[in-house]
């Protein structure tokens, strides 16, 4: 703790005060109180009979109910396995509510939280008033906040994904506009690989069609003058 004004000695300006007691209003005060309360409860609750006596004393002083072992708290389901000595936290119910809230209950699940082809940049943010007016209606920030709560509690595996999408919370772009040319790129690579694989097996396929709505790609495909410049795509 820095020395308050009026108490600094001339030859001890660089010294600080040693804090012997947590003061109300300091950032560490809540943690110090929790540690003190936790130590008291731990020292007083090592025996089941002591726990019962403490409950009885508290019930006489305060209006309370004994609900038994905790099963759910703050949207998290608590599962205990006393035989194996494990405790499991689950937010399945919370996540189902979040999916329903944003109309994604029928979305296809994936094992990886963020695909390698997924790229976001500030260039994809709305640039016209019409695009901005459309994105105002999208609850982008609310969705990120819901994911953050799951990330902090039980899903640390989505930390990178949440961090990536939260960078554009101030001015997000249309989700369907963000990766159309890239989903298309990965699909074409997959199609070329499958064609080569089937050809090696003696099952050559011709005239495979890949549909897309990217105007730049459609223009490139329809204009023969550009075809000679796209040999690198085949490579």
Automatic annotation (TrEMBL):
Q: Where is the Reverse transcriptase Ty1/copia-type domain?
A: 1-41, 44-114
Q: Which source organism does the UniProt entry give?
A: Hibiscus syriacus
Quote the InterPro entries the UniProt record gives. Answer: RVT_2 (IPR013103)
Q: What is this protein called?
A: Reverse transcriptase Ty1/copia-type domain-containing protein
Instruction: Give a Pfam family name.
Output: RVT_2
Source organism's superkingdom? Eukaryota
């Amino acid at each position: 703790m820095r020395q308050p004004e009026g108490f600094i000695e001339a030859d001890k300006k660089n010294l600080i005060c040693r804090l012997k007691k947590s003061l109300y209003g300091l950032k560490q005060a809540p943690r110090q109180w929790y540690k003190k309360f936790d130590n008291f409860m731990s020292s007083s609750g090592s025996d089941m009979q002591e726990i019962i006596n403490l409950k009885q004393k508290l019930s006489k002083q305060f209006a309370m109910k004994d609900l038994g072992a905790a099963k759910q708290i703050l949207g998290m389901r608590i599962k205990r396995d006393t035989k194996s000595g494990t405790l499991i936290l689950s937010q399945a119910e919370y996540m189902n509510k979040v999916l329903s809230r944003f109309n994604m209950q029928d979305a296809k699940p994936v094992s990886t939280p963020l695909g390698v082809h997924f790229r976001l940049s500030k260039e994809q943010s709305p640039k016209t008033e019409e695009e901005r007016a459309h994105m105002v209606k999208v609850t982008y920030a609310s969705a990120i906040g819901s994911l953050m709560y799951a990330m902090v509690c039980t899903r640390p595996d989505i930390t990178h994904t949440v961090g990536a999408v939260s960078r554009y919370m101030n001015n997000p772009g249309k989700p369907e506009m963000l990766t159309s040319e890239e989903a298309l790129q990965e699909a074409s690579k997959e199609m070329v690989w499958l064609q080569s694989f089937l050809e090696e097996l003696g099952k050559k396929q011709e005239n495979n069609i890949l549909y897309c709505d990217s105007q730049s790609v459609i223009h490139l495909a329809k204009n023969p003058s550009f075809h000679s410049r796209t040999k690198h795509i085949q490579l």
